[in-house]
Amino acid sequence: MKKTILIIGGSKGIGNAIVLAMLPDHNFINLSRTDPSIADSNFKHFNCDILMDTLPELESLDAIIYCPGSINLKPFGRLSQADFKNDFEINVLGAVRVIQNYLPALKKGQNPSILLFSTVATKLGMPFHASIAAAKSGVEGLVKSLAAELAPSIRVNAIAPTVTRTDLASKLLRNEKMEENIIERHPLKKILNPEDVASMASYLVSESASPFSGQIFEMDCGIVNLKL
Hints:
Layout (H helix, E strand, L loop, with lengths): L3 E5 L4 H10 L4 E6 L10 E5 L15 E4 L14 H27 L5 E5 L12 H21 L4 E7 L14 H10 L8 H11 L11 E4 L9
Parallel strand pairs: 1-2, 1-4, 2-3, 4-5, 5-6, 6-7
Helix pairs in contact: 1-5, 2-3
């Protein structure tokens, strides 16, 4: 079934990979501050700051995918309250604003679903991750609460990836030695590509994933759940 999918942040990174993977078979509406490089009859873009701007009116949606995130890694003593506030706004309040605004449109959709993004850092304690782990833990709480509240009509899930090759993670992968160290820490000896995450996202908003709601799917390359 051809779906109408609202994606926030579909111009870059994982969001862009999701659009490219699903675009031939679905209609996408993209809200982003960055102009996309995609030009397709199934793709419509609105230049929009999700926290500040008036959101466009949409009549009916089958899925919402909220991709914005942050990797704000600092020692705890160097994290300001503004850092915590900014990460929470981007990751949690932005998602809340989008979902509240478009819930009426989503309720008109066919087998509708919501997909958010977390991180392995909510389960795996890592230095310098206090702000982002706190924010993404809020995302996971939102997923579980909304999944319960919106059942059985709307499914809500999240993907929690480990390090993924995107511009957002470029500082973590800025040289070959750093990349080798990160790969070595993962039992599966790999780093995720955006296309890996896009495949999971495509599945979770599809009819094949109808049994799943309130779930956090860890794409961890083994780092959270395996110790070798």
